Amino acid sequence: MAQQSASVDRQSFGTIAHYIKVLCEEIRITEPVGGSLETVFFGGGTPSLLAVEQLIQILTALDQQFGIAADAEISMEIDPGTFDLAQVQGYRAAGVNRVSVGVQAFQPELLQACGRSHTVADVYAAVEWVQQAGLTNFSLDLISGLPHQTLAHWQESLEMAIALAPTHLSCYDLTIEPMTAFSRQYKPGVQPLPSDDTTAAMYRTAQHVLTAAGYNHYEISNYARPGYQCRHNRVYWENRPFYGFGMGATSYLAHDRLSRPRKTREYYAWVDAQQQEYGESKISSQRSNVSAPEKGSAPIKPNSNLKLTPEEPLRAQTAQLEPLSSPLPTASLNTDRLLDTLMLGLRLAEGLSLATLIEQFGQTTWARVWECLQPFQAKGWLVITSDRNAAIDPSSAPLPKSGRLQLTDPEGFLFSNVILVSLFEAFE
Question: What's the pTM?
Fold first, then answer.
């Protein structure tokens, strides 16, 4: 395993080194907004192919440009078979205090079916090294709905994951991206992929097994021991501002989203264009909206899907948690902002504050939202709870104005896409 990792590093060191140089330059020409960084997240691609020195280079650039808070959560996605004990010890010494291990499954045949290069033995070695390095805050990623996967396989993977005592577990349903080799081999709803009924049973099983084991189901796909929710990902779900750096990354500042090109050459050209256009001045959250000349660099719509998948390019994602200098949202903000808030906030178990929704978007808008949601409340897929977490009977008032809007667990979470599609159609 260590030998394989070293081989990969030697072959790609020059390419990665150049990429990091460009990435750090993008960081350098970006104007700071607000205070120090409270979270940093290295995700997409395979960050664990980075040498320790390369990771330090990126963290140093971030600290010099923005400042990293002393108690910041610094997370890193790591894949079994791509690192060894010395490497993860180096990551921890550099400041990484949380890792997410991409396990996916505990059955060799399923790992092979979904194109993973690591083995089950690699998984156990990876977790052992993480623990030996003193990284007590670690997460395991599992995927349901894999080709040939049965409900028994899924139950076994959940139990084997629990036995490794992670502080956090992420359980994702397989997403087949169009125009990929995987999509040409497997079609949704067609064997050997599990049926929709089976994947729904897998979701319910995960909720039952993991909550019984003491994990809090705090977000649609995520479970955590008390005190170990992912601070960085909560920034996305709470629709707070964040910086994004690197190929394919997205930033969200001053209520604007900007996506970087997803291909290497185009990303390099985009950074070069920013340098030439702005010279020594920094890229501000307002000016960075200007479309670069390369394909894929234009701003994306606020309601774009922010899901980060392991197939995306390596990037450094950083979150800025302190308030922006711009005013808080009001009822005059556009529909995209509202739909963003609903789409992301309803992913969390605590849902959304009605008082905050009304303050930001107005009572008339909330009335339209509630009219759309009432059929789903009748199905038991969502509830409005009081501050004491007790359910409120919406029939007692024509328009609830206090409490929290929450999806139920597991049924509301399971049918969240149906609810969101209805909201998007109502406000389109």
Answer: 0.85
